[in-house]
Amino acid sequence: MTTRATRSPRRRTVVALAVVLAVLGAFVVRLVDIQVVRADEHVEESRKTGNLGSTQPVAGNRGDIVDENGTVLASSKLVYDAQLDPWLITELEKKDKAPMPWAKASTRIADITGLDADELRSEVAANLADNSDSRYYQLKKKGLSTDQYLDLKELELPYLALKSRAVRVYPNGAVGGNLVGFVNSNGDGYGIEKLQAQCLAPRNGERTYLRGKNGVIVPGSDRETPAVDGGTVKLTIDSDLEWYLSQMIAEEAKIKGAKSATATVVEVKTGKIRAAAQYPALDPNDIDGTHPDYWRSQIFSHTYEPGSTFKPITAATLLEEGAATPLSVVSAKGRERFPNGANIGDSFGHPEYDYTLAGALIDSSNVALSKFGSKVAPEVRYDYLKKFGVGTPTAVGFPDEESGGVRDPRKKPWDNQTYYTTTFGQAFTVTPIQVASAYQTIANGGEHIDLSLVESCTDREGVEHTTEVTKKRVVSEDTAAQVRRMLENVAVQGGLADTVEVPGYRIGTKTGTAQVSDGKGHYKSGAYYTSILGVAPIEDPQYVVMITMEEPTRITSSAATAPALQKALTQVLKTYRVAPSSTPMEAPLPKFGE
């Protein structure tokens, strides 16, 4: 039997429950209105006022640069920046709320980062002395390793902030450094880092989330679009060969007292640059260790008058135009005054010789080449200089590449001296890589192939894009073959024959000793830019090797570069396992006419 006494508490319970359910229902209705019905409206309003939405970038890593075999030449790694909040350190110390006393914390921090604890405390104190409200003190300027970051994080110090960033590292240092280049503090690239910036660039992601008024992230609102690392740039160079040539050319430059030197290797049948070493060399990890004048790749940026290395180009012009053969003859003294008043002299005194064209190259006679070269009109000679690449940057497109140049006689006639000096490599300028390119054309049967330094770019999506090259015929195969034969005679009969000989291989060579401009329209006294090129094996050319030295002081002639060429050719042929020559040299060409 239910009594009034028992019904009353039950009624009160039911009423209370109904009230609770009503209130809860109102909250649910309101919550549905806010989070479902009008959710977009509220989120948009909060985002506009900056009270709810937050977005943080997620950085991707810049891509790698590798050599032809996949050896990493440049990559990115994470380092961590650490900063202290001096004001907060003081406040926590005053209120005795720090996780550990500053004296102990500073010692732990110093031990982890390799700093001096006393200096750290002193510098933080000085920071506060300058500004008692200071909220920033950079702990270490060159970044912390991952291990240091983790050790510092374990300290759980509220006044210690840690932030990651990517930095470029160059595992091989100065090996290929002038080609690879570097990225400066502003993110601007030099060398391949600049040339291939688009391929190497990552695609950054982002993290978005919603926050409440107290800054707490709203559960379930955290979304992240992952970053995508940059692509991989594969170069044509062989880093092992590059290392050898870097060591060798530095040693040779120092022995000869040269300001700078380069060693370049071009693969004849592909136009690929297999090495481009220089001294002084740039270590991208320490750019301040090299004078800024030598940050750039000298083979692309240094312009000079090529001198006698361009005499074979004059010979090719004569042969192609039918104006001479290797056995054509001119009479030439050691120095002559030409009918137009020009004075031309050889590097050594001699009586009048009846030089063959082959002999003029063997003895490198300026006077004889002047007489041979004048058999072709200046306009035609100019056209061939242009065909062989003078005044045009290579297809590599290397940053800050110079073009050199030669004046068009159609626009302004060559003066009396220039009329002749252009036949032996003066009165126009080139870069070392342009000379190597011209010899690639001769070595490749008269067909020019665009030089390349980048093999491919494998982009962020994993798609490989290879470098496309073009070919063009410059001179006939017969002309190129005759020039190569004369180059072999230079190697065998020239004054440096014993020095440049590579046992087991037939080679072709040509030297150049160019006067150096003083920048004021004159030449420096006793200063020369010396160079030498080698083609091997000459009967089936595989590689062109070029050595240059800027103003050597102990040997000022092109003999300064000969030992380096011999060493470089030997190493190149060994590196690429080129078979020794199996056929003998043809009968030597005569230096003098009958």
Q: Would you summarize the structure shown here?
A:
Its main location: membrane. InterPro entries: Beta-lactam/transpept, Beta-lactam/transpept-like, PBP_dimer, PBP_dimer_sf, PCN-bd_Tpept. 36% of the residues lie in helices and 20% in strands.
Task: Describe the protein's architecture and organization.
With 594 residues, this protein is an alpha+beta fold. The protein has a domain at 239-575: DD-peptidase/beta-lactamase superfamily (Beta-lactamase). 36% of the residues lie in helices and 20% in strands. The longest helix has 34 residues, at 4-37. The model has no long low-confidence stretch (mean pLDDT 90). Belongs to the transpeptidase family. This is Penicillin-binding protein 2.
Descriptors:
about 600 residues; alpha+beta; Beta-lactamase; seven-stranded mixed beta sheet; five-stranded antiparallel beta sheet
- CATH topology name of one domain: Beta-lactamase
Categorize the overall geometry.
elongated
Number of alpha- plus pi-helical segments: 20
CATH class of one domain: Alpha Beta
Give the helix level as a range of percent: 25-40%
Biggest sheet statistics: 7 strands, mixed
- End-to-end separation: 150 Å
What are the segments in which pLDDT stays under 50 over at least 5 consecutive residues? Answer: none
| The CATH fourth-level homologous superfamily of one domain | DD-peptidase/beta-lactamase superfamily
Binned strand content: 15-25%
- The tally of strands reads 21
Mean pLDDT across all amino acids = 90
> SS-based structural class?
alpha+beta
